[in-house]
Amino acid sequence: MYLAVFVDMLGFGVILPLLPFHTERLGGSGVWLGGVLTAYALAQFVAAPVLGALSDRYGRRPLLLVSLAGSAVSLALTGVAGSLPALLAARVVAGLCGGAIAVGQAYAIDLAEPGERTRALGMVGAAIGMGFVFGPAIGAALAGLGFAGVSFVAGGIALANLIAGVVLLPREVRPDAKPAQPPRRRSANALATLVQAVRLRALRPLLGAVFAATFAFAGMEATYALLGARQHGLGPSGLGLVFTGVGVVMAVVQGGVVGRVTDRFGNRRVAVTGAVLLGLGLVTLPYGPAWLSYTALAVLATGQGLLAPTTAALIAQAGGGALGGVLGIGQSASAAARAVGPIAAGAAFDAGPATPYLLGAALCGVAAVLMLQHNRGAEVRPDAEPAEQAA
Predict the structure, then answer these.
(1) Cα 351 to Cα 349: distance, rounded to the nearest angstrom
(2) pLDDT of residue 298
(3) Check whether domain 189-391 has CATH 1.10.10.410, yes or no
(4) Which residue in 135, 171, 337, 371 is deepest, having the highest Cβ count within 10 Å?
(5) Residue spans per domain, the chain
């Protein structure tokens, strides 16, 4: 399952280095590029709770396979897109399939021992992170094929991933495991799931924390190229190495560290620590020499690596039986932040290069406070009915 997620993100990441240039060749302005990038996040915002709720009803494996098939289709459509509207539509299809990250998270929880669920979520995060590390590097190496050629290669990778998924993905949870959700059928209505989730007192601060922290991190991703070029003379290759390093740190933390520290300190404490580290990295980033900037990037990558799987684990615990739907709501909160965060950060950067990072650090403080409100008394037993948890 982790391999399926990794290869899916790998195929998606392959086209990213060429996407801005292809948009420009089609006559797109900066607004169009922003629209193409934002369309993915907005589509993911809509699709995540739908796919999660459908996986609660029909099972994780079928929904994950449908998503893998959709990824292959979206990449093929991206390759043949000869106009800006066609390219935008292809990215919408990709975002709709990208909403299945919540399905992968729920799948990992279903297959994990109860005490290993945060570790399993960390492995999902590591698979996603490494896909984004290696994908753009492969895309850059294949740039000579042209945008269409690279897109078709990525589509071929996605198709191979689908075939491997049909053969290799487990058909059911461990026979000795108690299902993470009751077996009866649940509503797949995304709006009903959203309303139900927001009514959970234990979930509200977590969704706010996810939005705030993701907003901060997405703002850094959107503006660091400008900051690095101004302060340290970084060009495209240097920036590529920097972001590769950030991705590797996050993957190592999620894949090998987070499970160990949560075993000792618990999800909530580790999540708060992650928010604090992310904030410290952001507030330090725009100041000082290059070595301090790179150290700050390592610190904030560590914080994000700790934060993502632990907040997902807390959301899964707070959501009770509707595991896929609730994790989908968490992905929607993250997607919403990724849709608006880069735009807001860009405007803040125009006001002053340090402004988006100071704003992000403040939002990390908000995220930490929100997670501190999610105390043990507010957490619910994993098998509780959503109606029992409503405010």
Answers:
(1) 5
(2) 94
(3) no
(4) 371
(5) 1-172, 189-391
Q: Which backbone phi and psi does 390 adopt, to 5 degrees?
A: -65, 150
CATH superfamily of 1-172: MFS general substrate transporter like domains (1.20.1250.20)
How far apart, in whole angstroms, are the C-alpha atoms of residue 34 and residue 4? 29
Neighbours of 37 (CB within 10 A): 19
Q: What is the pLDDT of residues 258-274, one digit of tens each?
A: 988 998 899 999 999 99
For the cut 70, the answer to whether the pLDDT of residue 198 exceeds it is no
Q: Give the pLDDT confidence of 23-52 residue by residue, as tens digits.
A: 878 887 666 777 777 888 888 888 888 888
Same fold, 1-172 and 189-391: yes
In whole angstroms, what is the distance from residue 330 CA to residue 333 CA? 5
CA 340 to chain centre: 15
Average pLDDT over residues 293-301: 94
Task: Name the E strands within the chain.
Answer: none
Q: Which ranges of 59-116 does DSSP label H, i.e. alpha helix? A: 60-80, 84-98, 101-111
